[in-house]
Design a protein that fits this description.
This protein is of the alpha/beta class. It folds into 2 domains: about 180 residues, Rossmann fold (3-Layer(aba) Sandwich); about 140 residues, N-(1-d-carboxylethyl)-l-norvaline Dehydrogenase, domain 2 (Orthogonal Bundle). Strands 3-2-1-4-5-6-7-8 form an 8-stranded mixed beta sheet, sandwiched between helices. Helix 7 links the parallel strand 7 and strand 8. Helix 13 packs across helix 14. The protein starts with 5 loop residues before the first strand and ends in a 7-residue tail after the last helix.
Length: about 325
């Protein structure tokens, strides 16, 4: 399969905008679709996404539009970068515009809250015949947009597709590595946001670095168990889309999910925190979805369940932490 030449990026948040820059820098003809009119106007007028990626000059140039038909006409690859809980609605909206041979690359991270379905499963329902890949890994959009060195995973069961997408987007500062385990890559990218909220709560409560390291490590064990139950390869979780993404998200307040956890740990209400933000912290909805999926697969995920209880079930943070610490000791 030849490297894609004409790429549409659906979703103009920070990550979608950064990926449009990546594609343009790699020499691909690129168009970015934004739902928000103010984002389109901002980029056209100032070459800056003031709402989601302020302070980054969007050069080289790429096209931007708020119309699906303009974004998707004649493209050979579509990057889906909309928030996870809006993905299925977006898929329904774009169905009639995507060329029949276009490859679909999922660059969103999450699990459907209502169904417990992986986002790839939602894509497969709507586009069962399209080539499909997952792009994920340890990335802060601002660093990618500024051209700082970044490595990601491009995972597909179609090895030629994974390599083609990696080649299309790769450049001096952006290094995609091909993988044949899209399920593992997707689960790693989704569930790490839930663990990051837990690590943020630990930091907000002042429980120390030892506790955060323990949470990160045991969180990786939960991610791996869930992934294996869904048919993923264990070794995937030691790579960029597993340990790499988890380490980044759980070690920096730049992470929307970790910073949300810090605020929760400091005693602020979830509704108050979310009201201040325009960008989505995917771990909030994913926590509930992970618990749903884990129950279905009979996978023990106490950290994810604890985060869900705090976020969605009114659980007291102090009591929840005590309950985790009181769990029976067992072999690692």
């Amino acid at each position: 399969m030849k490297a894609p030449k004409r790429i549409a990026v659906i979703g103009a948040g920070a990550w979608g905008t950064a990926l449009a820059l990546v594609a343009a820098r790699a020499g691909r003809e690129t168009i970015l679709w934004a739902r928000e009119r103010d984002v389109v106007d901002s980029i056209l007028r100032t070459r800056e996404n003031v709402a989601f990626l302020p302070g980054v000059r969007l050069e080289p140039r790429f096209a931007v539009t708020g119309e699906y038909h303009a974004a998707l006409e004649m493209v050979d690859t579509v990057l889906l970068v909309v928030p996870a809980q809006f993905l299925r609605a977006t898929l329904r909206d774009v169905t009639r515009y995507i060329p029949p041979e276009a490859a679909i690359v999922l660059a969103a991270k999450g699990i459907e809250q209502d169904t417990g379905a992986l986002l790839s499963e939602a894509v497969a329902e709507v586009f069962p015949k399209h080539p499909f890949a997952v792009l994920t890994g340890p990335t802060f959009a601002g660093e990618v947009a500024r051209g700082l060195p970044t490595a990601v995973t491009v995972a597909s069961r179609d090895a030629k597709l994974a390599k083609a997408v990696a080649k299309a987007l790769g450049g001096r500062g952006f290094r995609p590595y091909a993988s044949d385990d899209p399920i593992g890559a997707e689960i790693g990218g989704a569930v790490k946001n839930v663990i990051a909220i837990a690590c943020g709560i630990v930091m907000g409560r002042g429980l120390g670095e030892n506790a955060r390291a323990a949470l990160l490590t045991r969180g990786l064990a939960e991610i791996t168990r869930l992934g294996i139950a869904k048919g993923a390869k264990p070794e995937t979780f030691m790579g960029l889309s597993g340990l790499g993404d988890l380490a980044l998200t759980c070690n920096s307040p730049q992470s929307r999910n970790m910073s949300l956890g810090i605020a929760l740990g400091q005693g602020r209400a979830l509704e108050e925190i979310l009201a201040e933000r325009r960008s989505v912290a995917e771990g909030v909805a994913t926590a509930r979805a992970v618990v749903t999926l884990a129950k279905r697969l009979k996978v023990d995920m106490p950290i994810a369940a604890a985060v869900d209880a705090v976020l969605h079930r009114g659980a007291d943070i102090g009591a929840t932490i005590e309950a985790l610490l009181a769990r029976p000791l067992k072999a690692e």
